[in-house]
Amino acid sequence: MKDLFGKAILDFQTNNSPEDLITATSISEEDEMSVQYLFRSYDEMPKIEQKALQLASGKVLDVGCGAGSHSLTLQNDRNLDVMAIDISEKAIATCKLRGLENTKVQNILDFEGQKFDTILLLMNGTGIFGKLVNCNQYLSKLKSLLNPGGQILIDSSDIIYMFDEDEDGGKWIPSEKEYYGELEFTISYKGEKETPFDWLYLDYNTLQNAAIANGLQCELVLEGEHYDYLAKLSI
């Protein structure tokens, strides 16, 4: 991976002529994304993200923290003990420049040695699972990092609306996919193209079934305006 996402984040933080990110998926055309959006304040966040930050308590792990906006809100406005992790070295470098005190370049599957009261996975937190078949591996890992009484706050979207309907009102979904929420994602930045990667959108019922299969309770906390939702998982 070229870490173009992290490069864009660090460019914005250091005023190094940042440009918009160009994103595309296996079912959608190219779209421009302003890097500035990743630096949003609490007041600029969608209601689902605001709700997750309101519910966060105790010792917090922010998984896939990006530019660190969620962690900064919890650290600076809520005085919570937050650890922010991301696989992007440049994203973590940005988090440090922004004043986050506890950061680490880390894949969640390799994380060891600490437990948390709240684990956050936001901005389509199920995305990092990649494929439906990986859900058990990730949920089992996340569960192992929870303190007694702890919670996992995770958001995603049901993207069934993006598929064409047939004459009977059913959805036409390509048969090569195990599950319709499995997408291939590509990012371009400053003329460079990232290696495509798997990204998973989960409808709530599928997430709930996966949670139950892993000994977790699943509660629908909030639904957004566009098929998106926030869920709370707990032991």
UniProtKB/TrEMBL annotation:
InterPro entries to which the protein is assigned, alphabetical: Methyltranfer_dom, SAM-dependent_MTases_sf
Database matches in Pfam families: Methyltransf_31 (PF13847)
GO molecular function, one term: polyprenyldihydroxybenzoate methyltransferase activity
Natural source organism: Flavobacterium geliluteum
Keyword Transferase annotated: yes
Keywords: Methyltransferase, Transferase
Domain named Methyltransferase: residues: 58-178
Keyword Transferase in record: yes
Example of a GO biological process term: methylation
Protein name: Class I SAM-dependent methyltransferase
CDD domains for the chain: AdoMet_MTases
